[in-house]
Amino acid sequence: MIKKMLVGVIIPFVLISLVLGCVSQENRANMYLDKGIAFDQKSNSDKAILEYTKAIEIKPDFAVAYNNRGFVYHKKGDFDKAMLDFTKAIEIKPDAAVAYYGRGLVYIMTGAFEKAISDFNKALKYNPHDKDAQGALAFAKKALKKK
């Protein structure tokens, strides 16, 4: 009787704790993402990177956090780290148009115009009306011709 009562109380409690723990982790990751966005909007790149990194530590498959951190690294001129983050975002979410766009920008900055064109085309495949990707694609094509 006591065993049944304990099992009837303990198992549901453990299950609820596990579910709430998962939701809590998701919420925490989103909280750090939001903080990163706020710092980025205030042009505080270093704090934005820290917050995005915290989000990624909690949720390693958080493509948006990798992508956002990639854009901050890009703005700082740290193209190697930006490339790693955009590539990771694409690995996690292969249809992430914005990550292809970001990686394409890095390719432009490093003179890899053919790779940039490929990534901008992929960005447009997943988001055909993206004016930024359209403009960047046109720029990369012109730059490749001049090369």
In short:
By secondary structure, this protein is an all-alpha fold. The chain has helices spanning 2-41, 45-58, 63-76, 79-92, 97-109, 113-126, 131-146.
CATH-level-4 superfamily name: Tetratricopeptide repeat domain
How many strand units? 0
Name of the CATH class: Mainly Alpha
Largest sheet: none
User: What is the count of structural domains?
Assistant: 1
**Quaternary organization:** single chain
How far the N terminus sits from the C terminus, by CA atoms, comes to 82 Å
Instruction: Indicate the proportion of strand residues.
Output: under 5%
Any idea of the CATH topology? Serine Threonine Protein Phosphatase 5, Tetratricopeptide repeat
- Helix % is over 70%
What is the overall pLDDT average? 89
Topology overview:
Layout lengths: L1 H40 L3 H14 L4 H14 L2 H14 L4 H13 L3 H14 L4 H16 L1
Helix pairs in contact: 1-2, 1-3, 2-3, 3-4, 3-5, 4-5, 5-6, 5-7, 6-7
Fold and architecture overview:
The chain is mainly α. The protein has a single domain (2-146), classed as Serine Threonine Protein Phosphatase 5, Tetratricopeptide repeat (Alpha Horseshoe), CATH 1.25.40. It has helices at residues 2-41, 45-58, 63-76, 79-92, 97-109, 113-126, 131-146. α2 (45-58) runs antiparallel to α3 (63-76), α3 (63-76) runs parallel beside α5 and α5 runs parallel beside α7. The chain starts with a helix and ends with a helix. Mean pLDDT is 89; it is low at 13-18.
Task: Give a quick set of tags describing it.
147 residues; mainly alpha; Serine Threonine Protein Phosphatase 5, Tetratricopeptide repeat; 0% strand; elongated
